[in-house]
Amino acid sequence: MPWPLDPMTLMWIQVATGAMGMLTLVFLVRWLWRKLGQSPHVEVFFSPKGGCQAAIVREMMQARSEILVQAYSFTADPLTYALVELKKKGVAVEIVLDKSNEIDRYSDLHIFLDQGVEVKIDHEHAISHNKIILIDKKVIITGSYNFTNQAESDNAENVVVIKGNPELVRLYRENFFKHREHAKPAQVKESIDRRAHHKVAA
Asked: Domain range spanning residue 70?
């Protein structure tokens, strides 16, 4: 290659060098985000039988310090016993449920209470209809999916798993503590068959 380089050749060398530098920078930034758990990442699952329950259990079992749960209904034993196991391992597990769980014969509320898991009941609203699980201040699990057997096997539902969005996690945690503040300790009351109750009401 003749020296000194002509202006056109020099320009293309600079363009190529700049492009390689930019790609290297992008790679390093993405690697750093991943390393720090800050890389935005979203997964979606659909029921029936689309892996929603397995995905939720998988994420929960990776918890190391904290799980916060808001739910309308809770009847899915795999989720219930995963939370019980995490509690026994020293993970802080807090649950806020809709008031219907205190009288629903199918609710797993009694299991939580028997196993020493802290559960509060949100009586403040007509229905406490959130379906949210927050893990270690890093992971958000939400969507239409109730934490029930029917949601897994029969219903058309969705689960969204969001990672790497600290600001969104902060907002969800603020919402959780807002509802926990006015919720009251759970009590198992006289049970009713929710399905029969709904049939009569209809």
From this structure: 40-201
